[in-house]
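Model it.
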Amino acid sequence: MDARFDIVIVGAGMAGASLAARVGAQARVLVIEAEESPGYHATGRSAAFWTESYGGPQVKPLTTASGPELRRLGVLAQRGALTIGRGGQEREISDFAETYGAVGIDVSVLGRAEIAARIPDLRPEWTCGVLEPSTCDIDVARLHQHYLAAARRAGVDLWCRSGLAAVERVSGGWALSLADGRRVGCDLLVDAAGAWADPVAEKAGVRPLGIAAYRRTIAQVAIEPAAPDSLPLVLDVSGTFYFKPESGRLWLSPHDETPSTPCDAAPEELDVALAVDRFEQVVDRRVRRVEHRWAGLRSFAPDRLPVYGFDPGDDAFFWFAGQGGFGIQTAPAAAQLGAALLLGAAGGEVEPAPFAPGRFRRP
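Modeled.
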């Protein structure tokens, strides 16, 4: 055995880094990462925004509780979000506003003139919308680097190019064989492996939860006339697109969720073309060129809520996975909650029960 730790966290993306930063001062912690650098997959490919309605009412407590720390760290920039609908979708817009207003989110229903004032050259069929003024852009790279630095200061070790090759359950914990040939022992194993969460569990002899990966595509485009910096994040109430300005360009997505095996995701030309087409059906502006395109994997548990807690079948295996597309905006509160559960400490302001892995285990 090359080394022994109290806790080994599998995955150095936003989930693993934020949790390591929280627990590093209370235990000897190792984070292992299969890639050459942390955040290569979902974290490094996120077009993240902080919006309290994203992920649904049950995710909202994590998002809201994360806001103060994200503001304190200076990683939020005011944007605002506008969810829009065509004529005939007024009821959907009203229901959206009612649902999120009921859980304390500041939302306002807008008519045609009000949304057209915020989205230049809006096509006439788009007649209604809901404004969520608190929405912000997130500086994902800065937030991730903050957590990695905080973990390092707390004494956490980070080993890259050290994927998990094999896992053996032994007395008092785990014996891990890594892809670089090293062997490590630990008391607790934390699964923060994103799209690879179920495969990691299977290697450890733990029943998977059905966490599935879905590809999401984003394209950076130049439009004519150029996108104004004041443009809000614009989303379709039917969930078929979103777009927002970025440094004089536009980031747009067809809001795709294509089932995928865990992999180094790449964009499909059809999805990029769909994103462009859907944008041009909203705004009477031409996409001059696609400058960059990428895809990432979002991973969801069957009920689309994150999973935080010890596996009911093995009290040395801890789930910290299934964050879908909202893992960045909920990172501070999720890490606080995860650290409390992992260390047996007092919890924060978010109730952990909805996220417990035991909800998927039948008696």
